[in-house]
Amino acid sequence: MVDSPATAVERADVVVVGARCAGSATAATLAGAGRDVVVLDAAAFPSDTLSTHLLWPAGLAELQRLDALAAVEALGAPRLTTAFAQGAGYGVGSAFPAVDGIDYAMCVRRTGLDAALVRTAVAAGADVRPRCRVTSVVWDGNRCAGVRYLDSAGRVVEIRAALVVGADGRRSTIARAVGAEQPFLTVPSGRDCYFAYWRDTADAARHIAAQWREGADLGTAFPCDDGLVLSLVQPPAVAGGARGPGAAERRYAEALARIPDLTERLRGCARVGRVRSATGISSYFRRSAGSGWALPGDSGHFKDPVTAQGIRDALHYGRTLAESVVEVLDDPRALDAALTEWERRRITECREIFHWTNRLARGEAMRPLEIELYRTAVDDPELAEITTGIFSRTRRPAELYTPARALRLAGSALRHQSTPAVLADLARELRDATGEWRTTRTTLRGTVPRSAAPFPPRATLTTAGPGEHHA
């Protein structure tokens, strides 16, 4: 875009594109530290976005660090104090591990959650501007130096800033503008995702976050605000995502019918609204930092919703991005070094849960070792505690399959199940572990592969609108 007399030019320390989880966390932290922050979003708030919005204790702890937890709790979602998981007929209940004193989960619809986060950013001093659509980034040589956008009146405005933060979701305009849209690691999901809200019954157990595995299907029931329960199903993916009129309704109903205990949980509930869908999902890492720009949230890293990690990571890495750069925004060389280190830290911290998520997202029937894990966990509270801790990010996946525990599970599986099936599963487990180790040591070693380094384009890019999908 060529400057014209009609183009207004402003200056700020940081411009954040996207005002939802990652964007508000970044903005609130920087503004609270005294930095001049402008936040742009094409939407107005309150407004919804495609998301299944379960917050484990670690996610609620992030809200607490932002001083947003009280406002989110006021939305009325119940505290979920029990995690229940059932697979192959074995049901396991456990408490949630405490994170910063928070030992419960919550399922809060995004309309209220995001509006509360925007209010938090504004209260911290950020200048949040809704209905503003970013059209391009501004370059100073090879350095990102700001953005141009259309304001709510259709005027072209340019903001120059030391840092441009693209917190604008999976279809990130900023990622595309800086040449980072193509991930350097992509793992397609084996599941499609369909969800709907139901009006819960008066006698429902609204303190339980529940998940069921039945064959290759996975389903959940998470009580949320306004007396509703969010029920999600993730059947195996089908080619083309089963698009077309009525496809989402049909696939949702078919999956529910295959999970009888979830159907029973919803007995007496009345569905509210339409079935929503997310198909063709892939987990990925993108190049997430460069000279004068960064991509927290889904814009830089995304995991399948099967493990419900998106909101926590958006809040956490938005906040830590801000903490990493707040003191060095006036020194370009120090700023770039801080951005590089922040990106490295996210890769190293997320790679294990990335592998774990991709396993659960395969869309396959439960394997012998998985079945044995559920069977054993019924009488072994430590297993249930570790598993819940993995989802809450207080325990590591490696703690579940230690060599000693894996041997015990394999021995038990051989007593209860088909020997050839167990041996085949053990062989596959070894291949999977080897493949994950190799990926960790190469693609996810903590530095972005040189081939993933983007070269800033000079053409103006017009956004198709921010997209966000958290779980």
UniProtKB/TrEMBL annotation:
Entry-linked PANTHER family: CONDITIONED MEDIUM FACTOR RECEPTOR 1 (PTHR42685:SF22), GERANYLGERANYL DIPHOSPHATE REDUCTASE (PTHR42685)
Gene3D superfamilies: FAD/NAD(P)-binding domain
Protein name, UniProt field: FAD-dependent oxidoreductase
A family per Pfam: FAD_binding_3
Region Disordered: start-end pairs: 447-471
FAD-binding domain segment(s): 12-337
InterPro entries linked to this entry: FAD-bd, FAD/NAD-bd_sf, Geranylgeranyl_reductase
Species, as recorded: Nocardia rhizosphaerihabitans
